[in-house]
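Q: Here's a chain of 467 amino acids. Please give me its 3D structure as tokens.
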Amino acid sequence: MEPLDGNLFTLFAAAISTGLEHVRRRRAEHGYIGAHLDWPVLTWRDNGMPLIAEQLEGPIDYSDALTAPIFPPELRNSQMRFEHEASFVSLLEYARAHPQISKHLGTSYPQLLESQARGLVGDVLDRYIHTTGLFELNQHRLLPLYLEVEKYLLEDVLMIAILVPILCLRFEAERIDIDEHTSIVKLSDKLHLARTPNRRFQYESDPRVQTAATHALALTNYTVKNENVVSMWHAIGNAESYPLKLIDDFYAALRLATEHPTGYAQLLVLPLGWASSYKADLVPLQKTSVRNYPPWFENGYWKESVPTLTSQKMEDIANLFRRIRKLSDKRLSVALRRLNLSSLRTNGEDGLLDAMIGLEALLSDGNQEMTYKIAMRMAGLYKLLGTVGSTDVVREVKTIYGLRSKVVHGSDFDIKETLDRGDKKIGVVDAAVEHLRAALRVLIERNEYLDVAKIDRELLLGALTRV
């Protein structure tokens, strides 16, 4: 490929060449060149989850050779400073006069353009040496790195992929495609290293939870506006900038297909064909931390044994997600949201209420005798699943409503209350979530039964002729 702007490439290559001279000089003089700090190290736990830690120092950071030497003192303010080199000054002048480059690097903020330009040259210089092993300029070897930076400097809209690591689950298949732009993919070792949590800036959550993922939901065909560097920092760092509804719908599909606990703690942006920064040879991944997982994960669940989903189960998740994306009924959206919320609550009371709000959104008609009607309609839906006797379902839903009533009216209650199911006991809260999952599974497949009168008429009165 050829540069979009030949003049820019010439100036950038000249600045890199000068930077390489600084590196060679510093090495020849046995001067100090610092190392990359907080360098990621990948190991694996016995449960198959990655553990991504940080060591104090990593490989040499060759961009450090562009900083003024501390000793001897007479060199601190000399013309040997990289910022004063003619090649960098020419590059900076070109960038300042270029409408797109100056906008993207943030000329509205004092000295930001110079700082950003200096940082880009240093990053490319460092990556060039780490990836080529060369200390002399080879424009052919520099070009692939330059082209990624050039796209960032010149284009107003940049293509990205969004990766959402799936916590505390293992997967049998390396990849399942959901559609052309959506997949479940295994994270490579390089991506694991690049997504290392920023432990020094991690507050109120355990960064070890973030590392406990082998696969991710991958979303491509997304873009980010390249208005200026500051606005991009805000956009990528703000969770609300991401397609959260789509992401949460995927996790709802996952929770419908399997009862295993999961969630997500990172939103990752993978630049496609561009780069705004580099760190040695790491993938230029950008990351945002979130807390969308069961709170008890932070009690050490990241090191416990975790389940593995078969390839068939992964296909089930993909199929459910495809169906959910086509839904338009608000009641299903409410119930799916409540299913997700119920798994993220810090206490059982809220989880119970979430599950019952979801059931009521699906099965209520707004009339009296709520408990009886929802219990009976739930029993009717189970006829389509053929897994639980109607009497048991009615009894269980009535027990769940009894606990719900105590919670909302402030009566004495035991949130760990259980009910009998054959020869075993199950928590009432767990039963509520289980029934919500079952109702959603049926109604996502059979939308016609969102008309609850149809449940009453066909499933409860026995008029259904096709099941």
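Q: Can you summarize the key feature?
A: The mean pLDDT is 91.
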